[in-house]
Amino acid sequence: MRTARKIAAVLSIAAYFLILAGEGLRAYFSPDDLMNLYTCWLKSPAEILKANVLFFSPFFRPMGAAFYRILYAAVGFHPRPFHIACFAILLFNLYLSYCLVRRLTENREVALLAVLVSAYHSRFVDLYYNIGTVYDLLCFTFFYGAFLYYVRIRQSGVRLNRAQAAVCCLLYICALNSKEMAVAFPIFIAAYEWLYHKSVSRRIVPVLALITLVFIVGKTTGRDTMTLNPAYRPEISIRTYFDAFQTYAGKLFYAEPWFDIRKGVLLLIALLAIAWIS
């Protein structure tokens, strides 16, 4: 009976996701997709493979380039297989979310509810219609795949050995090769250690920080770097943080015009208070 309920819950969430987002499977290529396809078509498989190994090179998001190159070689200029592949990644990411939340909370119901809430959101419709968001999807896969891998080992009561640390670092590099936002990973690991084990690992966190430093230097210096484009130039400030928080929190709560910076600060304070009390 318990197994039947688990299967019913999983099928219900999958159906909820596909009913609301499934229209995206019939979408065509977006302008971004055409640009991405052409850019990747100009690169040889050897160049893309090399860029994934040399993760600090100026090459633009080589993991996503591998996705486009492999799919185009397999199915040609047909959007449906690309969308199916993206939906498969989305569903796998929901599974990763469930596994991670369940481990952190030790509660299956909370994990299922978290997956249900995150399964679909109409303000992030690009995830379902635009193949160009594959960079985000792949980044999520490798980022939270690495985080889940780390948490599983630490919850067994041991620290990562060299081979396990190498796997974690490799998954992190794959996340960096997918999208630059993966640079937050060392902070996630340090925060997990501090919150759940009352310490910060002196082994893997410095290694992850070094990988991050090499990545940032490689992506922001020399010729043909991403930062030459103003749209990809990082702006690090308190104001930028709150502007971004206001934008995404407004989308999350379907209240973009109403959700200003003052309400954002109050929400952050409330969340911190709840977390502290808990």
Summarize model confidence as the mean pLDDT.
Answer: 91
Work out the strand percent.
under 5%
Provide the helix percentage.
over 70%
Distance between the termini: 33 Å
Number of E strands: 0
State the shape: globular
Oligomer: single chain
With helices defined by DSSP (H or I, 4 residues minimum), what is the helix count?
A: 13
Structural class: mainly alpha
N-to-C series of helices and strands: HHHHHHHHHHHHH
Low-confidence segments? none
Describe the largest sheet. Answer: none
Characterize the structure shown.
The protein is an all-alpha fold and 278 residues long. The protein folds into two domains: 2-220, no CATH class; 235-278, no CATH class. The protein is built from 13 helices and no strands. The chain has helices spanning 2-21, 31-41, 45-53, 62-75, 79-105, 108-119, 126-129, 134-155, 162-178, 185-197, 204-220, 238-252, 261-277. The protein is globular.
